[in-house]
Amino acid sequence: MDKPGSDDKSPDNSSTPRELMQVRDEIDSIDREIQGLINRRARCAQEVADIKMADAQAARESGQGSGKNAGQDAVFYRPEREAQVLNRIKERNDGPLQGDRVAFIFREIMSACLALERPLQVAYLGPEGTFTQAATIKHFGHAVVSIPQGTIDSVFNQVQAEDCNYGVVPVENSTEGMVSHTLDNFMDSSLKICGEVEMQIHHHLLAGTQTGFNDIQRVCAHQQALAQCRGWLEHYLPGIELQAVSSNGEAARLAAVQTGTVAIAGDMAADQYGLEKLHQNIEDSAHNTTRFLVIGRDEIPPSGTDKTSIIVSSRNKPGALFELLEPFRDAGVSLTRIDTRPSKTEKWAYVFFIEFEGHLQDANIAEIMSGLEEHSILLKPLGSYPKAVL
Predict the structure, then answer these.
(1) Against a cut of 0.90, is the pTM above it?
(2) What residues does each domain of the chain span?
(3) How would DSSP label each residue in 190-254?
(4) What's the CATH class of domain 302-386?
(5) Number of other residues whose CB lies within 10 A of the CB of residue 69
(6) Answer CATH for 122-201+289-295 from 3.30.420.40, 3.40.190.10, 3.20.20.70, 2.30.30.100
(7) Is the CATH number of domain 19-59+78-114 1.10.150.240?
(8) Are strands 218-221 and 261-265 parallel, antiparallel or unpaired?
């Protein structure tokens, strides 16, 4: 029997049917063709990089460039272009592989080719092994240089200071709601939302080799993870200390070095810190999903399937929220999220985070923005960006 994942490369013998040999030969031929096409695509990516570098250098020499060097002025990563390519791949896919599976393969090819132009540096809420790192790899591919940060503030600061090209931060969970610290950072930041990532979250109870289930003294996890597993913990570990830490990755690190400490985290953390799974999938909701935002310094052109996020605040008067939402209803624009945060400038005043379908460059969206300006005391677009493809 051929070993799983070996691509059927086990030694042949006299009992191998002729038909199987023919199929194997065809697979080998296809593999050579695929390999040649991938490298052909990579060479095209290198040509694109050369053209962009030359254009950026010309712009600098004419006084139009603004970066520290020509390479920084050249735009290598185009989120809207990548979204368009992946959506077309899914649309034209006719199986037997599922569209998402094929798109994942192309995401990795695109990631590797982009690294030939210039490897992206992406800050994320760390340490290593967090779901935010998994979201970073899902969105940018494994060729990205992912740089862990201790706090959401640090992720914003790294991108703002141009030490990283992009950042990835959690923004909401399907069961626990919005991540308020991420929303608060947008209040004072000039950064833009450049993309979104959705991850189905599976939490595991992880322990070092020195800790068994009966040895558990405390459970460490991010506050959101503790909340997402509240029912399981109350049923199976009543009375055990629950300790909130900065991230699930940090919880995994503690579990690896402290006897009696276990962590709630995912597969990446288990692999990163060499932990054993005492129990799998302990989240209370089978559809537990977290959404992450990609933040950057530039506005993103339309991809054709976009969302827009804004911050808006109105005067405290009857019907104020209705006045803010009415333009969306009149234009037939679908709202995908509304949330509130306390205003930093006025007591008992609030700002609204509104997310909706469409792009700021769309004519109907531009008209809505004009209407909002008339009824608001604050209107801050956070950016338009492609909807999550995978």
Answers:
(1) no
(2) 19-59+78-114, 122-201+289-295, 204-279, 302-386
(3) --EEEEEEEEE---EEEE-TT--GGG--EEEE-HHHHHHTHHHHHHHSTT-EEEE-S-HHHHHHH
(4) alpha beta
(5) 12
(6) 3.40.190.10
(7) no
(8) parallel
**Terminal CA-CA length for the chain:** 34
The CATH fold assigned to 204-279 is D-Maltodextrin-Binding Protein; domain 2 (3.40.190)
Residue-wise pLDDT for 147-160, tens only, equals 999 899 999 999 99
Residue 269, judged by CB atoms within 10 A of its CB (0-12, 13-18, 19+), counts as buried
pLDDT computed for residue 348 by the predictor? 58
Question: Which of 176, 177, 168 is closest to 149 using CA atoms?
Answer: 168
Domains 19-59+78-114 and 204-279 share a fold: no
Q: In whole angstroms, give the CA distance from residue 167 to residue 376.
A: 30
- Please list the ranges in the chain whose pLDDT falls under 70: 1-16, 64-74, 345-348
The confidence score (pLDDT) of residue 247 equals: 86
DSSP state for residue 264 in the 8-state scheme: E
CA 173 from chain centre, in angstroms, equals: 13
Q: Per-residue pLDDT tens for 345-369?
A: 666 578 899 999 999 999 999 999 9
What is residue 13's predicted lDDT score, i.e. its pLDDT?
53
* 19-55 confidence digits (pLDDT tens): 889 999 999 999 999 999 999 999 998 998 888 888 8
- For residue 341, give Cα distances in angstroms to 89, 174, 289: 39, 18, 22
Q: How far apart are CA 41 and CA 29, in angstroms?
A: 19
Tokens of 348: 């008992």
The answer to whether the CB of 292 falls within 8 A of the CB of 196 is yes
- What angle is formed at CA 341 by the lines to CA 339 and CA 347, rounded to 5 degrees? 145
**Residue range 68-95, pLDDT digits in tens:** 444 455 678 899 999 999 999 999 999 9
User: Is the CB of residue 209 less than 8 Å from the CB of residue 202?
Assistant: no
